[in-house]
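Weekly sync notes, structure subgroup
Attendees: PM, AL, DS (notes)

Item 1: joint prediction request from the bench team. They want all two components modeled as one assembly rather than separately. Inputs as received:
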Amino acid sequence: MSLIVQKFGGTSVGTIERIQSVADKVAAFRAQGHDIVVAVSAMSGETNRLIGLANEMEEQPTPRELDVLVSTGEQVTIALLSMALNKRGCEARSYTGSQVRILTDSVHNKARIKSIDDANIRSDLDAGRVVVVAGFQGADENGNITTLGRGGSDTTAVAIAAALGADECQIYTDVDGVYTTDPRVVDSARRLDRITFEEMLEMASLGSKVLQIRAVEFAGKYNVPLRVLHSFQDGPGTLISLEDDKTMETPAISGIAFTRDEAKLSILGVPDIPGVAYRILGPVSDSNVEVDVIVQNIGADKTNDITFTVHRNDLAKAESILSATANELGAREVITDSKIAKVSIVGVGMRSHAGIASKMFKTLADVGINIELITTSEIKISVVINEKFLELAVRSLHSAFDLDEAVVE
Amino acid sequence: MSLIVQKFGGTSVGTIERIQSVADKVAAFRAQGHDIVVAVSAMSGETNRLIGLANEMEEQPTPRELDVLVSTGEQVTIALLSMALNKRGCEARSYTGSQVRILTDSVHNKARIKSIDDANIRSDLDAGRVVVVAGFQGADENGNITTLGRGGSDTTAVAIAAALGADECQIYTDVDGVYTTDPRVVDSARRLDRITFEEMLEMASLGSKVLQIRAVEFAGKYNVPLRVLHSFQDGPGTLISLEDDKTMETPAISGIAFTRDEAKLSILGVPDIPGVAYRILGPVSDSNVEVDVIVQNIGADKTNDITFTVHRNDLAKAESILSATANELGAREVITDSKIAKVSIVGVGMRSHAGIASKMFKTLADVGINIELITTSEIKISVVINEKFLELAVRSLHSAFDLDEAVVE
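Output from the run, pasted for the record:
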């Protein structure tokens, strides 16, 4: 018998029928004797409807009042799910964030959780009840309603699991787990049974949009085992946890992430003077353009070439800033390229396996793909390539690193 | 400078545009220097939408969870109205019932207010803010969300006014005040400038559906001056307060109420034995049929005739119960009549004016109306007549008791 926190997102509770399916699933777990806390989002579309009302009222709605407004979305879901559970003879009780109490700071619309009082939840669990908690919301120390920002329901679930010392936090989604790469690109992509928090963070931030990054960080920090599962299909899902030394040899890499959302800018022939990188990239960041990969080379003529990537939507803005800087600094030229893609291999196995990088580069070279930029971290190697080679690169790497699904003979 | 509590119902806040009109009105009051607390209902239709969701989920939704669900309706309104006020430079802050805190008993769906903590409201008023409170809801001593039942927003407003010792509680509605009688029946019906709590209670319970009876009782108990006003038209409305000895001579009667909703049953020739009234009416009440006017006569042959009225929808049920009782008791016969109307004259002036009843009876006799039943209270005389004479009776009485609007010459 375990203590399990389950989280169902907006799509999983998007209609009365779906809430009833969720109730069936929760009641079945409860019937196995587990203690269950369920965290839920607003029914899909509801949060947008409420924000629409606010925007009709005011272009910049008062942040405090926006939280009062949108927090009603999850409150509707907890009531309906609790009714559905009670109807099934599975006694349940709902809690808003304030009622729990989930204490947050006072930064409305993107508050952070400070602590969770587990007294109410525990007393209901002890009485044999399922506890249904509104995700995404809390209250500050003056009792003002706060929200954690979009996607915050995952964070609520993980934080409750951490506070209760739950055995597992299950995140129900519209996919049946975390994959070695996007199955729409590689047919033989495989669901991973396990992945570490670190790997999941690299996968998530690189475009595998299964879990909120913040929730994964939180789970890693408090060592809450996370499991990603499909809301309406049975299956073991993917367990995200600390690295387990006792398991068999770790594979070299766990997955391949990629994105087509970036564009590349280069400023060439920049005089090699101290602080030049800051003078080039400072104005870009100041205008709220996020810079991703950055590479600096000193050329043969003692001038710098600096290349970086930004989100494709920010290209025009970044280019105009960079051109102005090029003028000031007397750089030779600015060139841009929006037809790029970034491909990353991710895996804690890199730490113990030598030669991962060269294997990656050889694999790409063998199929004739030119690498434009390289950047590395402890458990990730990313390359920027021409967009048209993206699928080829992902498939080749997927196969080279033995990620393809085993063919049943 | 006064402290004023204003209440706006669902129709007054039914759309974004209407909430903006309410914000204009509230901001104008605030600009005059008054301290303002606003209590609001859910946007019209919203409570029914939420109850619809609950009923889709479960025929008999868990009462506790139904309160969690429907209380979101007012929460949406307080947020939107506060945003609209802030946009107008009129600083405002919203409060749910729990946040205030409005402490109620634990009877979900029809809770009663036990106390109101005025600390939060006062500190906001002191800071110059308008306070916007969700009507119809509170929380019990364990923090469970409760609702006061339909129409409870009037009660919230009055209770807050009582707790704060407000100078006036203004109830904004879709009529511009309380009338001497229904203007759809009598063209010359007049808006009353003042009426007492007692009179309002008699008028309300007899069918002038302007205010919730419970709110009027509450206002009378704590002597909170109530004013009924039109949400979107200017005007003084009607002030409901204690009787004021200092005003000019009280008119004999203040208004005429009526209803067509009742039906009459008579059981004739009942043996005159002790307890017979209970044996006849007990089974009727036991089946949840409410009995209104009751008249008992002892006939010349020492047998009883008992006549009473019930809601017209309950006639068939009451008749079948009464027929069974008639058999048991050996009564002569049961007769029923659904073509009746009840007309009442109401006024605290009855206490000091003699001859009101005979004037009423003479007025009806003069126009040829036969009175079937009579019942009286300290400030009300009601008669039951044939339905077809209803309009004639109301107009004749309205004129006879000098209620007609003065014709401007």
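Discussion: The interface with chain A takes residues 16, 19-20, 50, 53-54, 56-58, 61-62, 64-66, 68-69, 71-72, 75-76, 78-80, 82-84, 86-87, 93-94, 96, 98-99, 143, 145 of chain B (CB under 8 Å).
Action: AL to compare against the crosslinking data before next sync.
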